[in-house]
Amino acid sequence: MTGRNTELPTTTASTRREALDSPNRRLRRALRRPATLIVGGAAVLAVAGGIATVGTQPAIGEALGMPTASATAAPALAGTALDRAQAAATIATAETIADSANEKTDTRVLERRIDALDDYRKLSGAALTSRISSTVAATTAVADASAAQDKRDADAKAAAAAAAKRAAQERAAAAEAARAQAAANTVAGAKSTASSMASSKYGWGSDQFQCLDSLWTKESGWNYQAVNANGGATGIPQALPGSKMATVGSDWQTNATTQITWGLQYISDAYGTPCAAWSHSQASNFY
Question: Are 236 and 219 within 8 A, CB to CB?
């Protein structure tokens, strides 16, 4: 409205709240404080009983354009005066909702409704009732939209936190797996893996492992990166070509456990036991 717009700052406001900080709105915010209770007191009585009373606060009388009652008297409101009291209360509530709405919520319609109701002192009858009703509807819509956006924001924040936690757990698991793989790729780690697999999968005891240890010490020194310069035999079991070990795992070039798995299977299929393979190696210089 024209009367309302003349109260806005002449320079561009940096925030919506600064743009809405007119003298009338500052007065209504003051009236919303517990000391005056225009919303919590007089307006509620008007709705509940059909007749509202203006209390003893001078600011209330100013807001409604009525003289202030004495400390012992409380003039009743009815008719147009009651409608205007309800309009003041409606504006106060609408401004509270607009000011506190989620920043992503569109409050432009509600602000226009507040502007349209701001000259309630000049209105009466159906026009005033209609503007109160449309402002209440817009207030409810903004409150609902703000609450829904608050929930979406909270859900998104929780989802992001959960995703970050999962990512951290996955990084930790990957780091632990890398540490375990690095340990398994050492000579001591490879021997421990081979001893365990020989016993659990093939039933070979310590005597067979001694033969296996001698065999693979001769072949590669238990080095998973070993490559025979003369023939290209690769890895701990010196598979020729090394790509044979891909039947066990695609990581055969970097994983001692994959190489050991293939090597034990080869010994079992070709010689039956590590000691038999070792005996052949001693006699023929290969196995």
Answer: yes
